[in-house]
Amino acid sequence: MVPNSDAPTRSSRLALLLGDPSGIGPEIVARVLAEGASPHKTTAGYGGVNIIVIGDPWILDWGAQCADLSLDLPRYNSPGDLPLSAPGPVLLTGPSFSPDAHTPGRMSPAAGRYVLQTLNFAADLARANVIDGISYASLNKQAMHAAGSPHEDELRYFADRLGVSGYVGEVNTLDGLWTSRVTSHIPLRAVYEHISVDEILPAIRLIHNTIRQSGQPSPRLAVAGLNPHAGESGLFGSEEIDVISPAVEAAQEEDIAASGPYPPDTVFLRASRGEFDGVVTMYHDQGQIAMKLLGFERGVTVHGGLSTPITTPAHGTAFDIVEKGVASPQALKQALKLCTQMITGGRAANPHRQRTT
Asked: Minimal CA–CA distance to 39: which of 284, 342, 334?
């Protein structure tokens, strides 16, 4: 059968989710939309990608009220009604959420249930090739667990819903600097049980492939040590000698530009000066503290290893500032920009970031 070359084709689509309705998500989504989905406010979508806002319309309206804004997006009730291309963002009605269950500024199982329904809705659209990527405003893990989520976080929830069985992990980025971690949301006392070549090497591969997916072909990666001073040649621990160095060597054999292990207390200083494009850390706070100090309001989390590009701000739901009209949209803007680049294969590195040799 000969394909019909005259058949209409749609533009790339990025789904934008409102996040936890009890948090600042609806407000920062409204702020991003009010500023224009394009950097120049003249082209359809963000960088040529159409933004499809998914959620209960009244939640977006409430977010706009918090920001003292007025929005008037074209609204569609069914994915099948979406235009092939749109001159700007549109709103697709998603799962409903009762205003009677709305508790601004407080953790709510009802809000967590709505979040899970919205994640399911968006993931199903991705599996059906209706959308090409997802960015979502901040969620609350406690609310999701209270609503019955069996997963430790939204990354694993998405992996399950998208049918991804391979290695997945969170990758964070800020101003062109990236970081991944070998262990994530587990108690600190359990970290040592997971520091092995079999767990370090996939984390190196993950950040390498994620940065390449964003358009940077040859990322330079530093691998942090586990112990103070990277073990000081075994004086403060032998993990660097026994498992971290062999994992780095194995990555190099796969033509990954990885090096280390480096002392954890200085590796981000070197990376922030442009010596490395990404840092692989051994546990959650080893990288997160450094990245959030470098720019808490601009950081982005990428769900690495999934079949669909998914990004979100690295900050939380900020219940303490809900309805105060002061929430910053900067991290969400960066999440949208990065997801767009991953959809289109554009370069994600910060043009102002210096690369040293």
From this structure: 334
